Amino acid sequence: MKQDNQKDNLLVDIRDLNVAFFLRQGVARALANLNLQIKRGETLGLVGESGCGKSVTSLAIMQLIPEPGKIMSGEIHFNGEDLMKKNRKQMRKVRANSISMIFQDPTSALNPVLTIGDQLTDTMIVHQKMGRKAAREKAEFHLNEVGISNPGRQLKQYPHELSGGMKQRVMIAMALSSEPDLLIADEPTTALDVTIQAQILDLMLDLQQKYNTAILMITHDLGVIAEVTDRVAVMYAGKIVEQTDVKTLFKEALHPYTNGLMKAIPSAVADLADHEKLYTIPGNVPTLLELPHGCYFQKRCHLVSEECRSRHPEFTERSAGHLVRCFHV
Amino acid sequence: MGNFLIRRFFNGILSLLVVALIIFVLLRAIPGGPFDTEKAVQPEVLKNLEAYYGLDKPAWKQFLIYIANAVRGDLGVSYSQLGYSVMDLIKDKLPVSVELGFYAMLLAFVMGIPLGVLAAYYHNTVIDYVSSFLAILGRSIPNMALAPLLIIIFGLTLRWLPVARWSTPDSKILPTIALGLAIAAAITRLTRASMLQVIRDDYIRTARARGLSEKRVIFKYALRNALLPVLSYSGPLIAAVLTGSLVIETIFAIPGIGRYFVISITNRDYPVVMGVYLVYGAFIIVMNIIVDILYAWADPRIRLTK
To answer: What is the strand order of the sheet A99-102 is part of?
Structure first.
């Protein structure tokens, strides 16, 4: 009985997902046997360096991996249905009604030649079969909801007439207008001013409460992770290396990569007098074209051993829900 | 908008004046004159002719007289065709060239834009390769080769269409193709390149992520952005095509104005040279104004400033 409950509670269940990009230089394995679960209404943070596969994961859920990328194998269950088995039309329905996405740079994410209103109401008219007037009213309602005053006027404006923060609010209004089960936010605050960042995050959390939307928060900013997420998955070179709830992550991160990330956060209380340089993890991310045999983090790890070079560590559960992919911690 | 038009109108007039001055100076700088023939003309006759056409006056005076007459709609008379005024020549020949040019541009847009969109959408597939191959082919075959080829195939061998002249509707098909195909190819390539760039833009990903159909994504979200470069390219192109083509008009025996761009110069027929090139200049100016207005309409980020 308990198990059934858990199963119902599961919104997204990604199993053994493999995504590869077929480039001229070779095949880049962007995601290797990725497993990831998102529960209804929770906020899952996905954190890692640029190019580690965070965005690819989100685009895989949307079934929008760009050329020359391809999902090689795996299952992506959403609301109990495997998205991999859906045809184009069914997938469009899912995108329009159940999964929404907001992107890093709201300036490039909005079409410069169409009005806000035009872009906001398009899905409503196409998928929810709403009339133009009803769609406009709904759009006004949602713009109001994301804190845009005078929404009637904003609907007639073009993206370039709005500030960056306003545009991201519009994106959020657009994303939530279908009252989705899942909101994928791909670095939603990276392109914004620091003062605006907090407002946007607060707004997202407010609306999450209201619509009981699960959020997949993709970021490389551990500050954002600390502020808004319930659980966190740390990605490295196409694999999740550590996964736990946010409190445990900041208190007792286990994986050497996660620890490296934590140490690399600039601290306001650090003694400025000793001119200590900000910590950086030595070395570089391995190229996805030639991943090393064994653990992908071996070349940058201070705990590296023979074992790490010979085989890839599997997940082990250290405490309830705290998964780590490392032999030595 | 009103301000914009007024400003551009006066700018255009000024440009035309400068164009007229440059042509005037260049014409007199090149060797030879309008009455040079293989047999030397008697000096007295030459003197009389020059006096008759006002060529004995100082150059600056000739220019001022020309401009003063032009403002009143008198562009002078042809030196080589007696009694034929330049205004009459333009009235007779220009409409034919404009008609041919219009059909050719229509063909170019109707063919080029869909082919370009298809090639970009099916990037790196057979459709793209075929369309790109056709575009390169169309761009590479000069119309002086294409026109006779069309005449041989459709005129002489298959006997479907007339081989020359500009009269019945079916006689207009071959010249239109011969003139329009290369332009269609250019527009195909431009549309494809522009579309390829646009469909990688973030807002296209946004539109797809919102569950919109590919058709809607392409036609509503991508095409308008992709056609902006095509639009700016089209302005001067349309001006050039509407004012006729020497090759096509000669091969098909079409009484257009295109050939006068060349023969008036070899004849040193000063008033005709001035006339046809000023018409061309005026077309370019007008087309650019139209393109700027259309651009501002298509791209809300552009505003027509005063």
So the answer is: A99-102, A182-186, A214-219, A43-47, A231-236, A239-245, A322-324, A316-319
Strands of B28-146 (E only): list them: none
Picking from B79, B108, B72, B104, the residue whose alpha carbon sits closest to that of residue B260 is B79
pLDDT by 10s per residue, chain A, length 329: 344 455 568 999 999 999 999 999 889 999 989 999 999 999 999 998 888 889 999 999 999 998 889 999 999 999 989 999 999 999 999 999 999 999 989 999 999 999 999 999 998 998 888 899 999 999 999 999 999 988 999 999 999 999 989 999 999 999 989 899 999 999 998 888 888 889 899 999 999 999 999 999 999 889 899 999 999 999 999 999 999 999 999 988 899 999 988 888 876 665 555 556 778 888 888 888 888 888 999 888 888 888 888 888 988 888 888 999 999 87
Is A70:A153 a contact under the CB 8 Å cutoff?
A: no
ipTM of the complex: 0.87
Q: Name which of B203, B210, B301 is nearest A108 (Cβ-Cβ).
A: B203
The tally of CA atoms less than 13 A away on the side-chain side of residue B59 is 10
Q: Which residue of B has its CA nearest to A176?
A: B210
Strand partners, B299: none
Enter the tokens of residue A76.
């992506």
Overall size of chain A counted in residues: 329
Tell me: the pLDDT tens digits for A210-267?
999 999 999 988 989 999 999 999 999 999 999 999 999 998 889 999 998 888 887 6
Euclidean distance between CA atoms B114 and B133, whole angstroms: 15
Instruction: With both helix axes pointing from N to C terminus, report the angle between A164-176 and A194-211 in degrees, rounded to the nearest 10.
Output: 10
B274: Cα within 13 Å, side-chain hemisphere? 29
Q: Residue A170: what are its φ and ψ, rounded to 5°?
A: -60, -45
CA of A45, closest CA in chain B: separation in Å? 20
Q: Burial, B35: exposed, middle or buried (Cβ in 10 Å; 0-12, 13-18, 19+)? A: middle
The answer to whether the CB atoms of B202 and A105 lie below 8 A apart is yes
Contact A46, A65 (CB under 8 A): no
Contact status of B298 with chain A (Cβ, < 8 Å): yes
User: Mutate which of A78, A105, A113 to test chain B, going by most B C-beta atoms within 10 A?
Assistant: A113
Determine whether the interchain pair B205/A158 forms a contact, defined as Cβ–Cβ distance below 8 Å: no
Which tokens sit at A158? 């073009």
Nearest to B233 by CA among B300, B188, B279: B188
Residue pair B96/B166 in contact (Cβ under 8 Å)? The answer is yes
CA–CA min distance B3, chain A (Å): 23
> pTM for the whole thing?
0.83
Nearest to A234 by CA among A204, A254, A208, A214: A254
> Could you tell me the CATH superfamily of domain A2-98+178-324?
P-loop containing nucleotide triphosphate hydrolases (3.40.50.300)
